[in-house]
Amino acid sequence: xxxxxxxxxxxxxxxxTDEGIGMCGWxxxxxxxLIVIVTLPFSLCVCFKVVQEYERAVIFRLGRLLQGGSxxxxxxxxxxxxxxxxxxxxxTITLGVPPQEVLTKDSVTVSVDAxxxxxxxxxxxxxxxxxxxxxxxxxxxxxxxxxxLGTKNLHEILSDRESISLAMQTILDxxxxxxxxxxxxxxxxxxxxxxxxxxxxxxxxxxxxxxRAKVIAAEGEKKASGAxxxxxxxxxxxxxxxxxxxxxxxNSISAEKNSTIIFPLPLDMVTSMLGRG
Length: 277
Prior knowledge:
Number of helices: 9
Shape: rod-shaped
Order of helices and strands: EEHHEEEEEEEHHHHEHHH
Helix content: 40-55%
Strand content: 15-25%
């Protein structure tokens, strides 16, 4: 196995099975071949194995990785008694990260779950370097999600999920490279808030909407009063304009199919009539 200066795995090379197996290993290998030859053709049913297109077989001979790396797809040969193999699935695996209760940077409790898409990129490394690559990836995904969310504010978690997913993918990909795992995609599924906090945020949003509505209504009243003032100044300059406005009002009332007709009287006339009474 070769590494660079940062400890990242670059290549995993199996040991040569012909070196270091000792005299006992040579004897067991010869006995195994003798058994295969003596029991022909029945031994072929045991020796020949098949892996699918999406699988690879990692073969061990006397506890050592067989030279040449993983085998497959197709048929490969296994010596009885001294060789064993392990199948590795190379298809993309969907990992659902359970909801994680996290205290955000602004001291708000939030429950967030995610989904991780990953695959085995190196079958030999995934078998030789870690006991259970899938279980290790699952635990690392949960821990990484909690660590990232702990550095974010609530509004960042709710509005900036893409950057959180990208950061989580980068962390997982770097950490699982030594296990032969390639993280392809990470997505934040849902962020659930406590019920009391949801009610408080809803009340705050409703109050903000009401405040904006009052401001808009006040601005409309201000503009309407200014328009009425300008109209009154124009009407006061001409007595016929008031009469035209009166006729327009009558036209509007008659269009609504009403029998109500309003006759405006000068205030001086009304006052004099009340004085005589």
